[in-house]
Amino acid sequence: MFRKLNALLWLRVQVLISNSTLLATLLMPFGITILQNEFLNKNGELNMFLLSTSLTMVLSMGSGYMVSIMMAEDKEKRNLKSLILSGVTATEYTFSMLVLPMLIMLLGMISLPIYLKVDLSGYLFAYVIYLILATISIIFLNLLIGAVSDTQSKAQVYSIFPMLIVSFLPIIALQNDTVQKLLDYSFIGPFVGLLKEGGGELSLGNLGLLLVWVLVLCLASLFVLKNSYKGK
Predict the structure, then answer these.
(1) Predicted TM-score of the model (pTM)
(2) pLDDT per position as a tens digit, 118-131
């Protein structure tokens, strides 16, 4: 099993290195954060706001978008068929898709607060749990998109809408109460609310909401992925 996972992870790294557009999309949230901080946040008053918006961009562009594109590329280049013939299961394939996006999110959740000088020591546990569960949710969402996309072009089109929603929903919610309610019940709502309030304890309600999102998206993506396996 570990040999298969290592091979799959090596394949993921090679795809990422060879795809300059995907690599640029992955790095874009960090570049945008640096530019915004340098030109719009000279007094440090927007540190918490920039952290919230930058993390949502890392989620959507870094951890999420790459999943659907990689899976679509596997299908388009018939790598998925080769993996099936080599004995790779849907579960092993799904697990391999989780690793790189999670590493990207870990890089963002550690480096961005340090760069923006945001002290999270008072609510670090809630911050980590909310972000990890949100990351898993968006990975499964994009895995679902990749599973229903036959080509990279289709995956890019299908991924744009959720990517834009996750990236800009917190900003739009500042101006609209209805959008704010949608944000509150989304998988990014708990950590956005945590940063907006400047801290807080881990909420069972928020934890339950995130676990429901993870479960629903996990079951949906695995169902579609297993059907894709059967269809090959």
Answers:
(1) 0.89
(2) 999 889 999 999 99
